[in-house]
């Protein structure tokens, strides 16, 4: 039976988790995009990571207006991986979808991803499966592009996915984007794999690596965008922190890399990753600020601070 024809009482409860940090200008838009879903059996939980702006007050207003929404604040600022893992532990629904605080879920997202996931698991004898999806990405300059999700025409599986994520090389079949902002899965499958809160970045890559090694499948609805992603920039995306998290990822999976005979390849790949990250940042942020802004000295000081991870 298709999801469009499901009786209301046959639809399972879906929890949508929005991780939030200093997003007072965008968190309302994210919440409203979930409220607008054509799926009535809904729970919305917002995990606030000790925001220092008015994000919590904005969410509190929505909570007063809608009993489906709940807000939970972390005891201390702990990072997005901790917040996502906490959402898994708090979810009351049978299924859980994640959404970032600056993105928008398209109206049919839950219905389409639920249908895709249920169908895929039925065809694969109910093996653990993570469902992602296409996204429309807006880069901040009113330019958009369509990014395809992983496992569209057929499920993506195998340790070759873990290998590709860690050391690159030939792309696996049915490859595509697999960001946590489009992740939809059963709570039981998510509890079996979980997010590692030790990661400040790359936690979703770590989850994908472990899932691929553990036999999970990855699917996405074909040619259907599930979110509108607004690209933002912050200190957590500095090249220093990106490279630090990449090193942490390789260290965590060094046993797997050794078993596959990939230790030297991983080291070379990491060296290239570091050089590329700093070069890209220099051309996209540092040089434009030096040559096209007033107060070049301050811009230079701030940009170099980001290079160092401040």
Low-confidence stretches: none
Helix fraction bin: 40-55%
Number of helices: 11
Write down the domain tally. Answer: 2
Using the 3D structure, state the CATH architecture of the largest domain.
Alpha-Beta Complex
Shape: globular
**CATH H level, superfamily name of the largest domain:** Spore Coat Polysaccharide Biosynthesis Protein SpsA, Chain A
Give the neighbour order of strands across the main sheet. 3-2-1-4-9
Using the CA coordinates, give the radius of gyration. 20 Å
- Kindly, what is the distance between the CA atoms of the first and last residues, rounded to a whole number of angstroms? 53 Å
CATH class of the largest domain: Alpha Beta
Task: Average the pLDDT over all residues and give the rounded result.
Answer: 89
Please render the helix and strand layout as text.
Blueprint: E1 14-20, H1 27-35, E2 42-48, H2 55-65, E3 69-73, H3 80-90, E4 95-100, E5 104-105, H4 109-123, E6 129-131, E7 134-138, E8 144-147, H5 159-167, E9 184-186, H6 187-193, H7 203-213, E10 217-219, E11 225-230, H8 239-252, H9 254-259, H10 263-292, H11 296-307
Parallel strand pairs: 1-2, 1-4, 2-3, 6-10, 7-11
Antiparallel strand pairs: 4-9, 5-11, 7-8
């Amino acid at each position: 039976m298709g999801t469009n024809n499901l009786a209301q009482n046959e639809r399972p409860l879906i929890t949508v988790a929005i991780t939030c940090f200093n997003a007072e200008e965008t968190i309302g838009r994210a919440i409203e995009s979930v409220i607008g879903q054509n799926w009535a059996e809904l729970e919305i939980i917002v995990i606030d990571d000790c925001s220092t702006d008015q994000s919590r007050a904005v969410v509190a207003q929505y909570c007063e207006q809608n009993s489906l929404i709940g807000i939970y604040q972390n005891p201390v600022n702990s990072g997005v991986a901790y917040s996502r893992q906490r959402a898994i532990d708090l979810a009351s629904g049978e299924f859980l979808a994640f959404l970032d605080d600056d993105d928008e879920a398209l109206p049919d997202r839950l219905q389409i991803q639920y249908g895709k996931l249920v169908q895929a698991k039925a065809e694969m004898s109910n093996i653990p499966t993570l469902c992602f999806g296409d996204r429309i990405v807006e880069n901040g300059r009113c330019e958009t592009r369509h990014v395809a999700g992983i496992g569209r025409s057929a499920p993506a599986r195998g340790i070759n996915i873990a290998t590709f994520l860690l050391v690159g090389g030939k792309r696996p079949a049915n490859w595509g984007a697999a960001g946590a902002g489009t992740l939809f899965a059963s709570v039981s499958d998510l509890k079996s794999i979980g997010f590692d809160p030790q990661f400040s970045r790359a936690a979703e890559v770590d989850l994908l690596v472990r899932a691929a090694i553990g036999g999970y499948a990855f699917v996405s609805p074909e040619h259907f965008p599930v979110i509108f992603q607004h690209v933002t920039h912050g200190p957590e995306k500095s090249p220093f922190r990106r490279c630090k998290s990449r090193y942490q990822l390789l260290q965590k999976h060094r046993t797997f890399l050794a078993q596959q005979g990939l230790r030297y390849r991983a080291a070379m790949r990491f060296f290239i990753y570091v050089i590329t990250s700093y070069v890209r940042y220099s051309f996209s942020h540092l040089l434009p600020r030096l040559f096209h802004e007033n107060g070049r000295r301050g811009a230079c000081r701030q940009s170099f601070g980001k290079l160092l991870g401040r």
